[in-house]
Amino acid sequence: MNKGFCEIPIDKLVKAHWNYKENNQELAEKLANNIKRNGQIENIIVRELETGFYEVVNGNHRLDVLKSLGFEFIHSFNLGKISDASAQRIAIETNETKFPSNVSKLENILLEISNEFDFSDISLTMPFNEEYLSGIIDKEDIDIDSFFSEEKTDTEQKDKELLCPHCGKNIYEETS
Predict the structure, then answer these.
(1) How far apart are CA 81 and CA 71, in angstroms?
(2) pLDDT of the chain along its 176 residues, tens only?
(3) Domain limits of the chain?
(4) Dist CA 31 CA 66 (whole Å)
């Protein structure tokens, strides 16, 4: 098969035994819900093996979900015949070269889409729970500048923590 984008029969794909990404049942369920809702919109990256099979370089969790949903073919990018080290390097490069989110802008977008979609629906396919999403609305009603006035004690500030489920950062710290 030529290097590049292609569709590969799911039964020709094998997971990388060296995959370093952790399993997370909650995220796997959200991924499954996302794929049920949108289809496979993100391809997996594979390399050709001498056996005629393709090893998944990036997308092992997607492979699991797509199998469980009964997909027969998977949209893929075939790297061709490359070494283990090259495949592992590409896995790290594509998995770890992610840009941080601007939490304030992200929250504004979540608020916008909440006009069309309920938080219970959003929480099914995104890495946020309903409590966090509701906290965004609560945050809108709080005067954050007065929250950080010097009159507040450390205990009072801790009571107002809202942690981002994606990065674990206190969202209120974005404004300090």
Answers:
(1) 25
(2) 789 999 999 999 999 999 999 999 999 999 999 999 999 999 999 999 999 999 999 999 999 999 999 999 999 999 999 999 999 999 999 999 999 999 999 999 999 999 999 999 999 999 998 888 888 877 765 443 433 334 444 444 445 566 665 566 665 554 44
(3) 4-96, 103-175
(4) 10
Q: Are 128 and 110 in contact (CB under 8 A)?
A: yes
CATH 3.40.50.1820 fits 4-96, yes or no: no
Residues with Cβ within 8 Å of residue 176, at least 6 apart in sequence:
148
The encoded tokens of residue 126 equal 């995104």
Tracing tokens 């569709």 back to the chain, one arrives at: 7
Q: How far apart are CA 72 and CA 11, in angstroms?
A: 8
Place of tokens 């979540």: 110
Neighbour tally for 157: CB within 10 Å? 15
What tokens appear for 129 in the block?
């729970």
Q: Let me know the angle formed at the C-alpha of 8 by 49 and 125, rounded to the nearest 5 degrees.
A: 115
Asked if 78 and 54 touch (Cβ cutoff 8 Å), the reply is: yes
